[in-house]
C-alpha cells in the first residue's frame, strides 16, 4: 500500500523539522502531530517556528479515535519513548510503517516489542544540526534518514518508503549494513554529544584541532573497540567518515545532548557512555575516556 500520510510523535528539534518539511511538501491534511491534550493546548498557544517561518500543524489528540497512519515517525527522547509508544498505539494499523529517529541502538528493539517486526524499518537520523530554543527550531542542514532492513534486503516495504521519500523529495540513504550503520552513528554521538556537553561548546569547538577534539576521538575509538568485541566491524575509516560529517555541521549549532543540558533536562547519556561503559565491562574492553565523560555527565545532571 502506497504511503500517503505521515504522523509524527515528539515535537522537539527533529519533530518540528520533519513536521514542517512534510507539511510544506504534502499539505497540512496529510501530516499529523500526535500528542496528548495538554501538549496540544501548549503547542497551539505558542508560536512554533521553523527557520523563522510560523508553523501551522495538524494536531491529533491521542485520546480520540483516529485513522491509522501510513508512516509513523517517533521523534521523542529515549526517556519518553515508552509513553510515546502507548500514546501512538491508536495510530498503528495493519499497514503502518514505523521509523525511529532516536539516537542509540535500542529504540527499534522497543518498537518491535510493542508493534512487531513487520512494522519497524531500521532508521538512523544523520547530518542534521537542528536546534530548538523555546518554540523556535532552526537548522542549517536537514540531513537525511538512513533506512534499511537488518538483513540488507531491498524489501517491498523499503521500496514503499523510498517511493514516498522520492515523491516528497526527502533526502535518504540506503546503507548496506544497518547494524554497522547504527553503531557508526553511536560512535559519532558518543564522541560528539558527550564531549560538547562536558565542554559546554558548539560544534565549532570540535571542528578545530585541540583537547576537545582529541577527547571526542578517544571516546569514538572506544566505541570501535567495543563494537569489534561484539563482532561489528567498525574501524578508523568509520571515525574519519563521521569526523567529516561533523566538520560540515553549522559551527554555531549544538548536539541534542548539549541542548538538554542548557535546559537542565536529563540527557540520553545512558544510550551513549552508559551503554559503551557497560558493554566494555562485560566484554573486557577498557573505556577510560567514556568512564570519564559518563561520570562527569552524571555529576552535571546531579547538580540540576
Ligand atoms: N536534535 C538533533 O539534531 C538530533 C536528535 N536526534 C535524536 O532524536 C531524538 C529526538 O531528539 P530532539 O528532537 O532533539 O528532542 P527534543 O527534546 O527536542 O524533543 C522531544 C520532544 O518529544 C516530546 N515528547 C516527549 N514525550 C512525548 C509523548 N509521550 N507524546 C508526545 N510528545 C512527547 C517532547 O514534548 P514536550 O517538550 O512537550 O515535553 C519534546 O518536544 C533523540 O533521540 C535524539 O537523540 C537524532 C539526530 C539529530
Ligand atoms: C550528531 C547530531 C548532531 C546529528 O547530526 C546528533 O545526532 C545529535 O544532536 O544528537
TrEMBL record:
<dbReference type="InterPro" id="IPR008927">
    <property type="entry name" value="6-PGluconate_DH-like_C_sf"/>
</dbReference>
<dbReference type="Pfam" id="PF08546">
    <property type="entry name" value="ApbA_C"/>
</dbReference>
<dbReference type="GO" id="GO:0015940">
    <property type="term" value="P:pantothenate biosynthetic process"/>
</dbReference>
<dbReference type="InterPro" id="IPR013328">
    <property type="entry name" value="6PGD_dom2"/>
</dbReference>
<dbReference type="InterPro" id="IPR051402">
    <property type="entry name" value="KPR-Related"/>
</dbReference>
<keyword id="KW-0566">Pantothenate biosynthesis</keyword>
<dbReference type="InterPro" id="IPR036291">
    <property type="entry name" value="NAD(P)-bd_dom_sf"/>
</dbReference>
<dbReference type="InterPro" id="IPR003710">
    <property type="entry name" value="ApbA"/>
</dbReference>
<keyword id="KW-0521">NADP</keyword>
<comment type="function">
    <text>Catalyzes the NADPH-dependent reduction of ketopantoate into pantoic acid.</text>
</comment>
<dbReference type="InterPro" id="IPR013752">
    <property type="entry name" value="KPA_reductase"/>
</dbReference>
<dbReference type="GO" id="GO:0005737">
    <property type="term" value="C:cytoplasm"/>
</dbReference>
<dbReference type="InterPro" id="IPR013332">
    <property type="entry name" value="KPR_N"/>
</dbReference>
<dbReference type="GO" id="GO:0008677">
    <property type="term" value="F:2-dehydropantoate 2-reductase activity"/>
</dbReference>
<protein>
    <recommendedName>
        <fullName>2-dehydropantoate 2-reductase</fullName>
        <ecNumber>1.1.1.169</ecNumber>
    </recommendedName>
</protein>
<comment type="similarity">
    <text>Belongs to the ketopantoate reductase family.</text>
</comment>
<keyword id="KW-0560">Oxidoreductase</keyword>
<feature type="domain" description="Ketopantoate reductase C-terminal">
    <location>
        <begin position="177"/>
        <end position="298"/>
    </location>
</feature>
<comment type="pathway">
    <text>Cofactor biosynthesis; (R)-pantothenate biosynthesis; (R)-pantoate from 3-methyl-2-oxobutanoate: step 2/2.</text>
</comment>
<dbReference type="Pfam" id="PF02558">
    <property type="entry name" value="ApbA"/>
</dbReference>
<feature type="domain" description="Ketopantoate reductase N-terminal">
    <location>
        <begin position="7"/>
        <end position="151"/>
    </location>
</feature>
Amino acid at each position: 500500500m502506497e504511503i500517503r500520510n505521515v504522523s509524527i510523535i515528539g515535537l522537539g528539534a527533529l519533530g518540528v523539522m520533519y513536521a514542517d518539511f512534510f507539511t510544506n511538501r504534502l499539505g497540512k491534511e496529510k501530516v499529523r502531530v500526535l500528542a496528548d491534550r495538554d501538549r496540544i493546548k501548549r503547542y497551539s498557544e505558542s508560536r512554533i517556528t521553523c527557520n523563522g517561518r510560523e508553523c501551522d500543524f495538524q494536531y491529533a489528540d491521542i485520546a480520540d479515535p483516529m485513522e491509522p497512519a501510513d508512516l509513523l515517525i517517533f521523534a521523542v527522547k529515549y526517556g519518553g519513548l515508552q509513553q510515546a509508544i502507548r500514546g501512538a498505539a491508536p495510530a498503528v494499523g495493519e499497514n503502518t510503517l514505523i521509523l525511529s529517529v532516536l539516537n542509540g541502538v535500542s529504540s527499534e528493539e522497543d518498537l518491535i516489542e510493542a508493534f512487531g517486526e513487520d512494522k519497524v524499518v531500521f532508521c538512523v537520523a544523520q547530518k542534521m544540526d537542528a536546534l530548538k530554543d523555546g518554540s523556535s527550531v532552526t537548522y542549517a542542514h536537514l540531513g537525511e534518514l538512513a533506512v534499511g532492513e537488518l538483513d540488507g534486503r531491498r524489501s517491498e516495504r523499503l521500496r514503499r518508503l523510498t517511493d514516498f521519500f522520492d515523491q516528497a523529495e526527502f533526502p535518504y540513504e540506503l546503507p548496506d549494513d544497518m547494524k554497522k550503520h547504527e553503531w557508526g552513528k553511536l560512535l559519532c554521538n558518543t564522541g560528539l554529544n558527550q564531549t560538547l556537553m562536558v565542554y559546554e561548546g558548539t560544534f565549532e569547538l570540535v571542528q578545530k584541532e585541540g583537547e576537545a577534539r582529541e577527547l571526542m576521538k578517544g571516546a569514538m575509538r572506544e566505541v570501535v573497540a567495543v563494537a569489534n568485541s561484539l563482532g561489528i566491524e567498525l574501524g578508523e575509516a568509520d571515525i574519519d567518515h563521521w569526523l567529516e560529517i561533523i566538520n560540515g555541521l553549522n559551527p554555531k549549532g549544538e548536539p541534542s545532548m548539549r541542548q538538554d543540558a542548557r535546559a537542565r533536562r536529563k540527557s540520553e547519556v545512558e544510550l551513549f557512555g552508559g551503554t559503551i561503559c557497560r558493554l566494555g565491562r562485560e566484554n573486557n574492553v577498557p573505556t577510560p575516556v567514556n568512564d570519564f565523560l559518563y561520570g562527569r555527565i552524571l555529576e552535571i545532571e546531579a547538580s540540576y
